């Protein structure tokens, strides 16, 4: 069962989390709506793809209004497909929100225990991961392409929570819309890195096709890494949405041959 409710076709909210805490907003955008044009037509929320910056700012302000979280409270990153996670606080609000130049450099994940901060990351095929510890009211967001996945960004995020005395059993995770295994073909060099990152006996996350070509299931890979990190399976929800297959809903870097927009994953706890 999908963990989402679709709001006006432009946002997939994590309904289960939000029903239990009215101050929480969490979800993933689609490409529907927005002001962008050309190859970015729709709700592009990324500055780095060479879209008109004014269109991106208008799209971001529109999202802020839809979710009730003003853009001045956001934090954003220069994502580099690694496993660097930054702890942020209220004093960081606004960085990377309306200007790419002041975003957090070399960052693919955020963690905060502060209210009034919206963690934002962009995606288009890579796996967006959202983390929530309801009892401690701590949140995290990560961006996991194949590089970030094999470097264990999901496991790194769990370590960050543990540094804050939050055990894995208290952490809920949603594995968001991303490219499915049927659309994501990689070579054996990638698969060797995948093998090295998983413990012996874990569920296989790839399938051989021919030659040195394999189908890779990035969503399942991240789920297995979370399970290795002692997050209970019942705490992990995995979407069935594929950014490449669901052409009407999502931008896809691979399907659109690199010239396309980006959706956004977001999570934040509003102030009392």
Can you give a write-up of this model?
This protein has 272 residues and is of the alpha+beta class. 21% of the residues lie in helices and 25% in strands. The protein is built from six helices and 15 strands. The protein has a six-stranded mixed beta sheet. It has a six-stranded mixed beta sheet with strand order 5-6-9-8-10-14. The mean pLDDT is 94.
Give the overall silhouette: globular
Which ranges are low-confidence, i.e. pLDDT below 50, for 5 or more consecutive residues?
none
What is the CATH class? Alpha Beta
How many β-strand runs? 15
Please give the largest β-sheet. Answer: 6 strands, mixed
Order of the strands making up the biggest sheet: 1-2-3-15-7-4
Helicity, as a percent range: 10-25%
Question: What is the CATH homologous superfamily assignment?
Answer: CNF1/YfiH-like putative cysteine hydrolases
How many whole angstroms does the radius of gyration measure? 17 Å
CATH fold call:
CNF1/YfiH-like putative cysteine hydrolases
Distance between the termini: 32 Å
Question: How many DSSP helices?
Answer: 6
- Write the element-wise H/E pattern from the N-terminal end onward: EEHEHEEEEEEHHEEHEEHEE
Q: What are the key terms here?
A:
globular; 15 strands; 6-stranded mixed beta sheet; CNF1/YfiH-like putative cysteine hydrolases; 21% helix; 6 helices; alpha+beta; 272 residues; 25% strand
In short:
By secondary structure, this protein is of the alpha+beta class.
Sequence-ordered SSE layout with sheet pairings:
Elements: E1 4-7, E2 11-14, H1 15-20, E3 24-29, H2 53-67, E4 74-75, E5 85-87, E6 109-112, E7 118-123, E8 127-133, E9 138-144, H3 146-150, H4 153-163, E10 172-175, E11 185-187, H5 188-197, E12 206-210, E13 213-216, H6 218-228, E14 236-238, E15 263-269
Parallel strand pairs: 4-7, 5-6, 10-14
Antiparallel strand pairs: 1-2, 2-3, 3-15, 6-9, 7-15, 8-9, 8-10, 11-13, 12-13
């Amino acid at each position: 069962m999908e963990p989402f409710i679709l709001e006006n076709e432009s946002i997939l909210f994590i309904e289960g989390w939000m029903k239990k805490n009215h101050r929480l907003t969490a979800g993933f955008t689609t490409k529907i709506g927005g002001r962008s044009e050309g190859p970015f037509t729709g709700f592009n929320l990324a500055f780095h793809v060479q879209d008109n910056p004014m269109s991106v700012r208008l799209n971001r302000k529109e999202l802020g209004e839809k979710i009730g979280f003003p853009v001045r409270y956001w934090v954003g990153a220069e994502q580099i497909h690694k496993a660097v996670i930054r702890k942020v606080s209220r004093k960081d609000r606004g960085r990377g929100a309306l200007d790419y130049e002041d975003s957090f450099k070399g960052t693919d994940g955020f963690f905060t225990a502060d209210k009034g901060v919206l963690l934002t990351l962009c995606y288009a095929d890579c796996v967006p991961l959202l983390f929530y510890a309801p009892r401690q009211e701590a949140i995290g967001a990560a961006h996991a392409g194949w590089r970030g996945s094999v470097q264990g960004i999901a496991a790194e995020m769990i370590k960050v929570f543990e540094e804050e005395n939050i055990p894995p059993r208290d952490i809920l995770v949603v594995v968001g819309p991303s490219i499915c295994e049927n659309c994501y073909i990689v070579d054996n060099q990638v698969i060797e890195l995948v093998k090295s990152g998983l413990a012996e006996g874990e569920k296989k996350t790839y399938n051989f096709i021919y030659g040195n070509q394999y189908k890779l299931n990035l969503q399942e890979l991240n789920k297995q890494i979370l399970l290795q990190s002692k997050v209970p399976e019942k705490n992990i929800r995995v979407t069935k949405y594929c950014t490449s297959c669901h052409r009407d809903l999502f931008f896809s870097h691979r399907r659109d041959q690199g010239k396309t927009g980006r959706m956004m994953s977001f999570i934040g706890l509003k102030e009392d």
